[in-house]
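> @MW can you paste both from yesterday?
MW: sure, first one:
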Amino acid sequence: MYRQHRILLLAAPALLGLVTPGACRHDPTPSVEGVRVDHGFVRSLQHDHLRFAAALASDEWITFEDYQAATLAFIGCASSRGATLRSEPELSKRLRYFYALETPPGRDLKAEVLACRKQYLDPVEFVWARYKPVTAQEVADAEELMTKCLQSASSTSDWQNVPPKPSENKRRECARSVFDRTGLPDYYVWE
């Protein structure tokens, strides 16, 4: 989402010296295989001059380590253009990074940040998103968790309905709780 003077972007080894893998807040990463890509995908990256992503995919796999390297390279590129990392990147249970970048007041860095994203992160993140796709059951479970949490804020005795307008703080608290339990990006709360 873009706002005036601030850019918030989702989203996760080598990093232009600005952020290191140790700077990311997360639990120890579980061992994962990755997502297989074909040689045609690698050739298309090379054809589009996306050398960084092409190098990561050269073994025809996109692994968590590749995704992490692409995320950190993007953050480093955006930072070198003037954007500032608002907080440490946070790794969800679904092995996706979430973070916020800000831009200085009076500077429109949208084009520059998007160019960094295209060069480093987009092609890798596009593939990595297939690693653990969200199922309909996971969405339903998360919605149920959110409803139950919001119901606890209700002052009605029947607890059958979510209060018409739960406070923003309660919504954020419930969304953060659901994100922590599920890792689903729709429930991520920027702190």
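MW: second:
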Amino acid sequence: MSLMPYPKTHAEREQVIRATEVWRTKTPTELALALYTHIFAPAEKAYLELGERYQAAKGAERAASDAADVCDERFDTAMRKWTVSVRDERGVARTAELSPLLSMPPNELTRKPYGVEVSHTQRMLVQLENRPELRGDPAAFAELSAATNALAVAVAADEEATLTRLAIGREYTLATKEFDKAYRKLRRALVPLIGQEALDAAFPLFVRAEPKGD
């Protein structure tokens, strides 16, 4: 095991941030404080702000995904209820006639990804405008249409939340690299002012495993 001065994880970076807060309260020299303000503070601020935005984006993505799950449950229930309502004048189910309109049997569609459920059902609903004999129970048909629209909105929101999280994640990755770069620069700049021993006492050292030999 060895001790290294530079962080590799977000938890270790949090230790660095706490250490700098404590160090600043202990009245460093004016030059040392100026070095911190110029070299490290902007990167630290950007890292913290983007970290908060990234966590918020992850939360929004989870919420959007949960909402899509709820809408899908509604859709699946609506599809099942509507399918069994589509019958001929003898009361015989007409499921076989619905499958070509959906490009698959209805019970298979409800096991597909949400976007597939939406696109195939929307296409079928358009075709059923000219096939009133296959619309089944009016209330069930209306609920299927409403459930499909709700799922479409939820899927779009979920996809947008994922794209937002990915975009902020890329910014956060860059901010993390800048944080690490600035911290290395700060430590090097402070050595001539306060000495290596005082620097290691003020800022954390991290345990690293020694590389395994051949």
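> thanks! The radius of gyration is 30 Å.
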